[in-house]
Amino acid sequence: MIIAERKPISEIISIIGNNKKILIAGCRSCASVCMAGGDREVSALSEALGLYSDLNSLGWEISEVSKERQCEKEWAKEIAEEASSADVILSLGCGVGVQFIQEVSSIPVFPGLNTSNMGGPEEQGIYLEKCGGCGDCTLHLTGGICPIARCSKSMLNGPCGGSQNGKCEINPDTECAWDAIYQNLKRLNRLETLSEIIPPKNWIPSRSGGPRKIVRKEMVLSEDEKKIKEGLE
User: Fold this and answer.
1) 37-40, long-range: CB within 8 Å, 24+ apart, which pairs?
2) In what residue span(s) does the Methylene-tetrahydrofolate reductase C-terminal-like domain sit (predicted)?
3) Is the dihedral of CA 217, 219, 220, 223 positive or negative?
4) For a designed S-S bond to 67, which of 52, 75, 143, 213 qualifies (C-beta 3.0 to 4.6 A apart)?
């Protein structure tokens, strides 16, 4: 899942600027799980902005909408339709959601969250980055732990010389990814994997090649199929 956190309220107020009619759009998927953009967070932000508007006689008109996802055009279009009378849409979805809504809306869409990483909850209220999105997954070689995301230096050939007692030299509260890899492989009785010669990382599928696109040819609609689908909507 994508991990994000809400921008400081002062920054959100600055982003809103002179706009009066604000639609706050929530996302019930990733942003909801990390407690940044679900129904509850939309309501809380709406209340906070409403109070700020009242205290400063700004006359803001704030409305709310939440969809299952913002990262699909069908949902993004519904948000855009509900914002027909708004001056601005304030998205509490990830950066992908902001872009999807803006593609189908003639109204400016502003981000209310800072999108951080791909990860998941370690425990309630604590979220950890898990995946570097390199495009060439080799988790089968590292005990299911991503060294690109979990190692502060993204070391791919073992720990650096600064790790001590299973902790990273960058921060004593940060787990050394390669110590975790060792412990996991040991638990799985697969320590022999560390003796294998691993070829250099294939970075071609990574972000360094520009914006990435995956095309599932068997799923792509023909022009006629697109027209039929559009007619049903």
Assistant:
1) 37/4, 37/6, 37/91, 37/92, 37/93, 37/94, 37/112, 37/113, 38/66, 38/92, 39/66
2) 110-203
3) positive
4) 75
Q: Where are the beta strands (DSSP E) in 35-173?
A: 61-67, 88-92, 109-111, 113-123, 126-131
Q: Which two tokens stand for residue 156?
A: 């791919």
Question: How many degrees, rounded to 5, is the angle at CA 81 between CA 76 and CA 82?
Answer: 100
In whole angstroms, give the CA distance from residue 232 to residue 115.
Answer: 34
Structure tokens at 27: 């996302």
> Residue 137 has what DSSP assignment?
-
Mean local confidence (pLDDT), 118-131: 92
**Percent of the chain whose predicted confidence (pLDDT) is above 70:** 99
The tokens for 64 are 């709310």
In the Cβ-directed half-sphere of 179, how many Cα atoms lie within 13 Å?
14
- What's this model's pTM, rounded to 2 decimal places? 0.85
Is residue 154 classed as helix, strand or coil in its secondary structure? coil
Of the pLDDT bands very low, low, confident and very high (cuts 50, 70, 90), residue 232 is low
Other CB atoms within 10 A of residue 211 CB: 5
Q: What is the average per-residue pLDDT within 144-149?
A: 96
How large is the average pLDDT for residues 43-67?
Answer: 98
End-to-end CA distance of the chain: 28
